[in-house]
């Protein structure tokens, strides 16, 4: 009991639990001038991208297994499981939708911290909002604020926290989900601080789980824990009011780097959701510039059958992480820049379908992958790619991509997000419902409740 | 992505996830010779002590608030909330019973790691066993094995893990609960490894929460997460088979000290539940020798009204941690060795009732506390106390306690555990049901199912 060997405790941390709680409880919503129209539009884009990912993976084994485990609790039918027909209690809906939304690893990315912020926050919010008949406006407001909390805490701890093994999406996501749900429940500052405090004891996720179902489990479990933290706080459950910043509070326990300014600076003026990005391609981000370049070759009229070879020059990291030349299935293809090039040139896109086992094993794809000659050029940035197609007729068509589509410098347009959404949801819901759901997402800020939207996300209904 | 700053990764850790999974899935139960009668009796003592604590605190604000939050999910009536009449789904029962069992901080202690092992493990087990109509024998077997997992992982990481801020009861408890529930569900080695793996992503609890409801929330949340991890694994959910030991697995992420031998040595031969201890007094363990000494004075005929002064000599740590001379309420009295002495001399015991506001503010107790003269003597061990009562007639009665009752050296007898149980449960259940429940606990290993036992733990039924 006398031993105290904590080396690096910062006893002068600012009261960030309290500051964030006051921000969440009192910051004006969008209609009262809380943030710009651009920020609010980004929140709609974030919501739509998250929803498409969740619907798209709803029949995946991970969602099916999670739902079977939840069914053993005989849950009440409070909230929708997206892309399916089941309803479960709102905490379980938060869990399962959070899992689905991250299963394809196709959800949003806050690039500064590589947090996938929507999974924990939106999954908790939609379940709570649907059951409590809250308006879409309140949901979007809470989404902006909740994502601000998880990303700011992430900014403060990154990279140390991530380097030591935490899957930062789940570990900060519990806080974001708790904050968002506290806002939706209209908790006052004190109770919001309690919600954050209860959530602070429940960081979720280790990086060792990457490649297993437990990876997408992390945002799901974070959503569930955050939602429950807010419900507990609403009922008078208590926690430390310094749970985030204290010497033995969450942040100092899970990270040696804690830049408190990242939490306090421009709080309520700069919104981290503004820096959210969306993947156009269903694979690791280092492959994106190469896919983008090959898709541009296709747009310029280059056809696979005309190609003798594709000369690819990239940063060494790209081949280190994704140098698999002969992928045997869809999962391996996600780590193959060669397949990315073949898909980009053949289809002009590389969604979940282009990483299916069926397409990966097609003879023309195997053939095209073998024509890609990759070389390292470290004068090219990680975010860039230099690609030249050498054609049978001797012509050489060259494309240099400085920033791939989907980066902050070259964001996906709204139309591209819609196309991505269709690629995920059409097979699950059909074209008409997908179209209607896209409209419901763009208009969610004006919806009086979420029942109409979740009904559209129901498969076989 | 290229940055890799993890300094101290041990890439040669033994495959402890797999070893523990095989142990849990294949070690013979008690009836097949898996462990000694002494170990099995200790499991019954652990179970009874845990149950008494949970029933005793069932009406506390923490349990009431947690149950109100759970009620918002409209749970199915699958499993009992101990000491109350409500039934909730088994995961929620694990949560609420886990909270109640630690609310008084009066539950069991594995002294080497200061883990309170029963809270997470027994709370998950009883809920699952009650709903699944499993036998008491299977429950006790799973309790022995589950506690072995959490305490061995605790042994490996302690003290670094605790020093950096983790409440080790919750952080290792998720694993113990998952292991125990996997055993109860008869999962094979592979699925048990998955259950441990899913649990490994969910360590719960920061020490900053001590003094708030979130402290007892930790074993409750660990129980819930462990139970759900086992249910998920039973449905085919996957995790890393190296989730505990890998460089970015749980243990290396949350602790720089990892002595793998603590997990592997004498696995299946030495059982950590043998080293479990039970508090006779409802306060911090450093006060226990002083209370024990004063209770011995009382047993020798010393009456409070005869006392002129009490001379107390203790290690400096005792006064540093519990030197509050004039406590104003029950919570403060738990940090007052002076009140401990007054209670020991007046009542011969110091249970939850003797730390109530009513008793703490009684004039005779205030008077007696003021008669205690404490002095530091560092030749006396932390675990000891030297007490002398100086009486009005000039006599001096002296007691030296080397090891207090409740220590490993001087364990509470079964009769003492029964008396402690009555002190916790009589007010909730009445004397007759408490007596019946005590018998049900001693006989739980022979029970065909747990319905009878949980019915006895129902208040107002």
Write down the overall mean pLDDT of chain A: 95
Number of strands of chain A: 8
Helix content of chain A: 40-55%
Q: How far apart are the termini of chain A? A: 59 Å
Reading the helices and strands of chain A in chain order gives HHHEEHEHHHHHHHHEHEHHHHHEEEHHH
Q: What is the rounded Rg of chain A?
A: 22 Å
Shape of chain A: globular
Our count of helices of chain A gives 21
Please state the oligomeric state of the protein chains shown: homodimer
Uncertain segments of chain A are: 1-6
CATH 4th-level superfamily of the largest domain in chain A: 2-methylcitrate dehydratase PrpD
Strand content of chain A: 5-15%
Q: Pair with the most extensive interface?
A: A-B, 74 and 74 residues
What profile does the largest beta sheet of chain A have? 4 strands, mixed
Strands of the widest sheet of chain A, in order across it, are: 6-5-7-8
CATH class assignment of the largest domain in chain A: Mainly Alpha
Short synopsis of the structure:
2 copies of one chain form a homodimer. By secondary structure, chain A is an alpha+beta fold.
Name the features.
homodimer, 461 residues, alpha+beta, 2-methylcitrate dehydratase PrpD, 60s Ribosomal Protein L30, Chain: A, four-stranded mixed β-sheet, two-stranded antiparallel sheet, 21 helices, globular
Can you tell me about this structure?
The structure is a homodimer of 461-residue chains. Chain A is 51% helix and 7% strand. Chain A is of the alpha+beta class and 461 residues long. The first copy, chain A, has 2 domains: 16-278 and 442-456, Orthogonal Bundle (2-methylcitrate dehydratase PrpD); 285-401, 2-Layer Sandwich (60s Ribosomal Protein L30, Chain: A), CATH 3.30.1330.120. Chain A has a 4-stranded mixed beta sheet with strand order 6-5-7-8. In chain A, a hairpin with a 6-residue loop joins strand 1 (79-80) and strand 2 (87-88). In chain A, helix 5 (118-132) packs antiparallel against helix 6, helix 5 (118-132) crosses helix 10 and helix 13 runs parallel beside helix 16 (337-347). The first copy, chain A, is globular and about 75 Å long. At the A-B interface, helix 3, helix 9, helix 10, helix 11 and helix 14 of A face helix 3, helix 9, helix 10, helix 11 and helix 14 of B.
